[in-house]
Amino acid sequence: MSAVMLGMPGAPPTSPRGVGHLRGEESFPAAARHSLADTQLRANLGHATRTIRGKRAAVVAELPDWEELREAGRQLKVHTMAHLPAYLVQLEEAVTARGGVVHWARDAAEANAIVVDLVRGTGSDEVVKVKSMATQEIALNEALEAAGIAAFETDLAELIVQLGHDKPSHILVPAIHRNRAEIREIFLREMGDVDPALSDDPAALANAARLHLRRKFLSARVAVSGANFAVAETGTLSVVESEGNGRMCLTLPQTLITVMGIEKVVPRYRDLEVFLQLLPRSSTGERMNPYTSLWTGVTPGDGPQEFHLVLLDNGRSAVLSDAEGRDALNCIRCSACLNVCPVYERAGGHAYGSVYPGPIGAILSPQLTGVEDNASLPYASSLCGACYDVCPVKINIPDILVHLRAEHTEAQAAGRRVPTAEAAAMQAAAVVMRSPRRWRLALRGGRLGRLLGRRRGVIGEVPLPVLKQWTDARDLTRPPTSTFRDWWAREHGDGQPSDEGERP
Amino acid sequence: MSARDDVLARIADAHRLAPSPDLPYDAVERAYRGAEVPGPDAGALVDLLVDRLLDYKALVRRTTPDGLAGTVAEALRERGATSLVVPEGVDPAWLASSDVRVVADPGPAGPLTVDALDTADGVLTGCALAVAATGTLVLDGTAGQGRRAVTLVPDYHLCVVRADQVVADVPQAVAGLEPTRPTTMISGPSATSDIELNRVEGVHGPRTLEVVLVEDAGPDRG
Fold this sequence. Notes:
The complex is a heterodimer. Chain A is built from 23 helices and 12 strands. By secondary structure, chain A is an alpha/beta fold.
């Protein structure tokens, strides 16, 4: 059937409001104002991101074929997204053939309901959890709690966040905003079984987490995980981790429930040779992370004897319907873009509102929710391009940011009869810039700005309409005493560009 | 409409709204060093593996087939291990010089309880293969490697690697594995980077990983 016969379909629905953690309570600039005022947070983030940038650069430099791996990763993702239905169906068949059960969820609420039902079906009232972005996105822990099921996060950073009644602020290291002294305080206050003499040495803190969770692991009957990769060809799922909490959850309980976004599928087992090189080096800056688990359905006598896979849409098909933005789905959640971003390093992850912070969050969250629900995020960037340079699958984040800004501007224009101050300013600028004469006069007029900022040498907040909006987050340099055109005329005389003629 | 049909229909709609470039699977450029690229010779591979293992804080002993039983005994003595989980298929000759209490895990037929694994001093296994460039041991649950729990719960993992099991890099490893077996890739002892992004060894998995590398002696080694 052709599109002509049917007419063009409407865009698939974005992630619904009211459930999940994709939308913040305030805009990025408002939220960033709080975090920028927190000097401890800024020191913690600066230290951690500096450390990881150095480690990543060193292990990436070891591989002479890094750029070729990135290109293969990018092309594999592009190919997969173009054939997504076929690969998802193939994955479902392979998992089912090996004794797993596959569930499909249109959105967060549906995925949560499926998991709650599955846990209830086991008779257990608690689950152990492997760190997973998908389950954070859908707010699964809250849904389980509402159903009377306790969810225990077992990743060290997730544990720090959960015990601290806090929110995650980084994809890889959700507690990156905490330093060792703060973590020690949280453990002493919340664990209940900690030696008061606990030091803030990271090894001692890691050991405290080991002791705290050990009995839980050895007795848990149900685990919930995410997935880093799912191989369509074989039905093989993979979780990449460091601590062994993942292995504990994937191995010891009777029942394993894995929630994964539909974009995590890869075509063939062989493709892991690309992604298992790209991910650890980009993520923790290691040649290989300590533990990678790969399992296919159920293996008699080894690991969980009941396996459920929940495939989650929650706005992903909507992202796929935008040719200019859909590469955001290619993300393998390494977090390298966060660690190099000058905006993330200063504002921190909480300022982004969504569980996906940093540059990738600034393009993924607004597309999953619809740009109007995360309208400030595409602007949370200086477009410096460092994120693109480090992305292991070469997502052109700056281009997508600009695309989303345009989409937001157009949506605003379409929804108003009176243009925004920004649109009016742009129209005025267009009129002025079309005529060299008007442009010259405007530049000379700019010297009036010298009246401002005489004391500090820069122009701070100007309490006038429009100017205030621009200057409340930016200092402007004081205009120079003469314009470039005047200087050129003085130095070169007849070389001055002509003022004659109007351009169309 | 079921959720399954709905999700698949949404993706089909998305593809109609924004058609994708045609990039067949076989046209994906794989210009990186793949499984077919010959790595360094066997001796250099083992040296590289040892370097990587030590870098990630594993303990390493190198020996010959004749010295293996003595090296295993020495490792266990220095560790102070008196009870050792041994999965089905481990060559009894490896333990010929050791006087530890062997806690046999017969596998699916009558597996040890989690508590039995937890109270043992360690576990001894072989591996499916090892990756030199990343310092990774790969276990796939076949003979001599045990089900996944046996190399997870005990706090000390002693792993025997033969030189002919060492491959150059990740592509050779992936090519050498059977996808449907439960597979674990292990690179050093359990660790975390969650506190200030510094790597610290020793969380939930075995806190000590010790590798015994078995190389043929003599001029024609490798």
